[in-house]
Amino acid sequence: MTTVVTAVLIAAGLVVRDIAASELINKDAVADQIRTAEGKPAIQVVRVERFKLLDENQVFARPDGYTLSGSDENRVADLFSDHAIDVIDRAETVGVPVEIATWRLYLRGNRNQSVRILDIRPVNLHRNPPAGGTLFDVPPQGGEQTELMGIDVDTPQPVARSMHVTSGRVGTYVYGGPYFAEKTIKLSDREDQIIMFRAVTRKYDASFSLEIDYQLGDQKLTTTVDNNGQPFRVTGLACRNGRLDYAHYYSLQSGKTYGIYPTNPDDGDFCK
């Protein structure tokens, strides 16, 4: 049997470690070694997407100082118009979420043996002063109450903890204990799992990737996940002397219509 398996691996043009006779009994382990030799990841990242829960306003910063055109200002002045949300969503595409940001990770198992996730933590963490430029403060568009994984990037050594969003009011979440002390996540072959996680900051403009520790058979391995080729990013509010420190500020106002209007940053009460 050893000769047959070796011949198959050589014919496939693969280089693998020596396989002990006892391992030949485990066909899944042999198949997984072939997948590894072919460069196929044990955990496939299907996609990463931003997602807003009930306690998240659509508050984001544009460090580039972006401002709306006159025509776009007219569109968002009526928040119930057909184009208002499209304008805001377009502005948010390259914006940085403020204080709270939630993502969904869609992960797929890619091994015959079950992949068990042991831990997830931020790596390549960079913390700078909060991003300024332009601040947009838009009412939430909906979401849901749920349990998720939370990471407070303000702490010296951020760790993944359980988090519960308690209601629809902004920022109504509570932390629990270490996330993977309470949760077990396993990925079977071609099985998808969704991990929802939130990053929170009040102090920094923070960017990072996620490192996933996982177990495959008797091996403990790691893989890194980013935000579609970019780091995950969330920023605290830019404040100075108790006031917003932005060149431009758009917020919900009741003018001729109920909508988003240019606002004096000194009128914002976020920093109080």
Contiguous uncertain segments of 5+ residues: 1-17
Domain count: 2
Oligomer: single chain
Give a short account of the largest sheet: 6 strands, mixed
Number of strands: 18
Rg estimate, integer Å: 23 Å
The end-to-end distance, rounded to whole angstroms, is 73 Å
Strand proportion? 35-45%
Instruction: Indicate the percent of residues in helices.
Output: 10-25%
Inertia-based shape? elongated
Number of helices: 5
Give the ordered list of helices and strands.
HHEEHHEEEEEEEHEEEEEEEEE
Labels describing this entry:
272 residues, 41% strand, 5 helices, 18 strands
What this model shows, in words?
The chain has 272 residues and is of the alpha+beta class. It is 15% helix and 41% strand. It has 2 domains: 2-37, no CATH class; 43-267, no CATH class. The termini are far apart.
